[in-house]
Design goal:
Blueprint (H helix, E strand, L loop, with lengths): L13 H7 L3 E2 L7 E2 L7 E2 L7 E6 L4 H9 L10 E3 L14 E3 L7 E2 L9 E6 L11 H18 L8 E3 L8 H8 L18 H9 L15 E2 L7 E3 L6 E5 L6 E3 L5 E2 L6 E9 L5 E10 L14 E4 L5 E6 L9 E8 L8 E10 L4 E2 L9 E2 L7 E3 L6 E5 L6 E3 L6 E2 L4 E10 L5 E9 L14 E4 L5 E6 L9 E2 L1 E5 L8 E11 L11 E4 L4 E3 L3 E3 L10 E5 L6 E4 L7 E8 L10 E7 L2 E7 L9 E8 L6 E5 L8 E4 L1 E7 L1
Parallel strand pairs: 2-6, 4-8, 4-9, 5-8
Antiparallel strand pairs: 1-2, 3-7, 5-6, 10-13, 11-12, 12-20, 13-19, 14-19, 15-18, 15-20, 16-17, 16-19, 21-33, 22-25, 23-24, 24-33, 25-32, 26-31, 27-30, 27-33, 28-29, 28-32, 34-45, 35-38, 36-37, 37-44, 38-43, 39-42, 39-45, 40-41, 40-43
């Protein structure tokens, strides 16, 4: 609907009008404000609500609400109106919804001959100015439209969710005439116009449920406060969402979704790379909305996690284990970055809600735990223990196993909390340690926590075992092992709780990128140096003509933290470069050759692959002259190693 520019003149009096109107919650749609009309102007009967019409106001929210509500206004009505911009401090918030006196059961006068077949929403703004179509407006409108479509049982598609000017969409008129029983051409309007983002709008309406892996796009995530527009990157990355923080309290908003959060113990895992910026000290938090409470507030948020990371990956697990999350229907997520902007570029690899963190209360049985070395058969007791598993240590280095198949995505802020009662025995001094494996892995010392010492005898002790500081913890966990005393003291071990919990100030694992320029590589043979290419790394580069592979540069990192690393190369491109330049990567597990086309891709980091490296200098990358192209050169410039938690 176009309510024309005379609406602008009434904007100044809206405050007085609004104060006089009865303002209360809508009985049809909870997030909306009910504002009754002065006079009735709608149909009480029709042919069924078959589709929904999207209008723009060609005017302002406040004046439109005032105009529709005014006495003597008998020519038009609409079900809902939504604010786009907050034009002044006294204006309504972006995304505010008003139900304009017409219940959803009735038929508003908003689209001529479509009225007795449809519902409609007016959106603040002007068809020739995209500034009015803000993200809060899209989100609010999409939630409302989804509600209406679901209520009346029609498809959430572009045949049933239409523009006032829908007759301009090729093929729709014929479809609507045959399927909706309407004259599709009775409306002459063209709103909401060319700037209304139908793809984005329909994506929000239909929702994208988590997890969000960003394999090919940003999956409907959009910039919120203090963030530049989100964009997707694939080259050199595994597929990531990217946004630049431009102000304080920066956050990004997930698409509309609809999934039932699991029961007790859920968390949300986020893998993030804070790039550059003025500080390595950061904070992060998760917010969410539900069908019961379709708004963001502090009551529906995780604790704030503070951490240190810069130009490296950090996987954080957020504790959302509370009644306003588990068991609720989640309708949107929000990821909050730094409360104070330090100019960081945020790169997010995935946002992954977990069904549950591994937690065992032993309320009714041993919960699938089994004895390992130097332990008697496990039994379960209730009585005064309140539900506990117990076993007797019979030798040195005793341990018990959790059930296999945990499928838990661990984080760098994880710790394991064990509530234990060492009964009898010869000492109150004990030690405890945790081991873990992924699917198909073997138990070894590399996948273990530090040994924690504690004192208890015939009394309860809460033992907290940090595991997230070990980079080998941060992946999919298949099974854990709980190790008791290295030296046997004849203790009976009674355990009534084992759970993975999430610290709000995790131990920092900041592994800096290792970049080796050609000047830091070991040169074998005679290589020429060049400086003329403007897309070189550093001051110069090396090059060599075709050979047998006997001439090469060796780039050897000194690895302080064992684990997986993404390996990149940098070269200056040109038509006289090799199209298959050999890069031989020696890693912890073997050797592989990756050929790089150096005629393209110059002046940037090009991914060679992800490889595991042991600590020390055993691994390296060699760029050799063993290529087949005649009359051209291989370039040896720089190599980068990036740790992958």
């Amino acid at each position: 609907m176009k309510t024309q520019t005379h609406l602008k003149s009434s904007v100044l009096m809206f405050g007085a009008v609004a104060a006089a109107m009865s303002v209360q919650g809508s009985a049809d749609y909870g997030p909306a404000i009910w504002r009754p009309l002065c006079e009735a102007n709608w149909y009480t009967s029709g042919y069924g609500h078959k589709f929904h019409v999207v209008h723009d106001m060609e005017g302002y929210y406040a004046s439109t609400v005032s105009w529709f509500s005014s006495c003597g206004m008998r020519s038009a009505s609409v079900h809902y109106a939504i604010n786009g911009l907050q034009d002044a401090g006294s204006d309504a918030p972006q995304g505010e919804i008003t139900q304009l006196g017409v219940t959803e059961a009735n038929y508003a006068w908003h689209a001529l001959c479509w009225n007795q077949h449809s519902t409609g929403t007016e959106h603040e703004g002007f068809a020739n100015n995209p500034a009015w179509y803000t993200e809060p407006m899209y989100q609010a409108s999409a939630g409302l439209t989804r509600h209406i479509a679901d209520k009346f049982g029609y498809a959430r598609d572009r045949n049933h969710i239409v523009a006032h000017g829908q007759k301009l969409v090729a093929g729709w008129s014929a479809w609507a005439s045959a399927n909706l029983g309407i004259d599709p051409n009775c409306n002459s309007h063209t709103d909401p116009g060319p700037y209304w983002d139908w793809n984005h709008y329909m994506t929000i309406i239909n929702g994208i449920n988590p997890p969000y892996g960003f394999d090919t796009d940003v999956q409907g995530w959009t910039a919120g406060n203090g963030e530049a527009a989100t964009w997707w990157a694939g080259s050199g990355w595994p597929g990531v969402l990217v946004t630049d923080q431009t102000g304080n309290d920066g956050y990004v908003l997930g698409p509309s979704c609809s999934y039932t959060a699991p029961g007790y113990g859920p968390c949300i895992s986020v893998n993030v790379y804070p790039q550059s910026g003025g500080s390595a000290n950061h904070d992060m938090q998760i917010f969410w909305t539900t069908t019961a409470e379709p708004f963001f507030d502090a009551a529906k948020s995780s604790p704030v996690i503070t951490y240190t990371a810069q130009n490296n990956w950090m996987r954080l697990n957020f504790n959302v284990n509370q009644p306003k999350f588990y068991g609720q229907t989640i309708t949107q997520l929000r990821l909050d970055f730094d409360n104070t902007s330090v100019g960081t570029r945020w790169i997010v690899n995935d946002i992954w809600p977990e069904n549950t963190s591994p937690i065992w209360f032993f309320g009714a049985d041993i919960n699938g735990w089994t004895p390992g070395n130097a332990m008697s058969a496990l039994a379960w007791a209730d009585a005064s223990w309140g539900g506990a598993v117990y076993g007797d240590q019979t030798g040195n280095d005793a341990y018990i196993f959790s059930p296999a198949g945990l499928n838990y995505l661990s984080g760098q802020n994880d710790l394991i909390h064990v509530r234990v009662y060492p009964q009898n025995g010869t000492t109150a001094s004990h030690d405890m340690q945790v081991f873990w494996i992924g699917a198909g892995e073997s138990w070894d010392a590399a996948k273990s926590s530090a040994v924690v010492n504690f004192s208890a005898q015939n009394g309860w002790a809460d033992v907290y075992i940090p595991v997230g500081a070990n980079p080998n913890w941060v992946h999919w966990i298949h099974q854990i092992r709980l190790d008791f005393d290295q030296t046997n003291h004849g203790t009976r071990w009674i355990v009534d709780y084992v759970g993975v919990e999430h610290q709000t100030s995790p131990v920092t694992v900041a592994v800096a990128d290792t970049i080796i320029d050609n000047t830091g590589a070991t040169v074998t043979g005679t290589w020429a140096s060049g400086t003329s290419s403007t897309d070189k790394y550093g001051a110069d580069y090396r090059y060599h003509s075709k050979g047998s592979g006997a001439n090469y540069l060796t780039y050897t990192p000194n690895i302080a933290t064992a684990g997986n690393y993404k390996v990149y190369e940098w070269h200056p491109q040109g038509s006289n470069r090799s199209s298959a330049a050999p890069h031989v990567i020696a890693y912890n597990g073997g050797t592989v050759t990756v050929n790089v086309n150096q005629q393209v891709g110059g002046g940037t980091w090009n991914l060679l692959g992800t490889f595991n490296f042991a600590t020390g200098t055993a691994g390296n990358v060699k760029i050799t002259d063993g290529f087949t192209d005649a009359g051209i050169n291989v370039m040896a410039d720089a190599v980068k190693f990036v740790y992958v938690p």
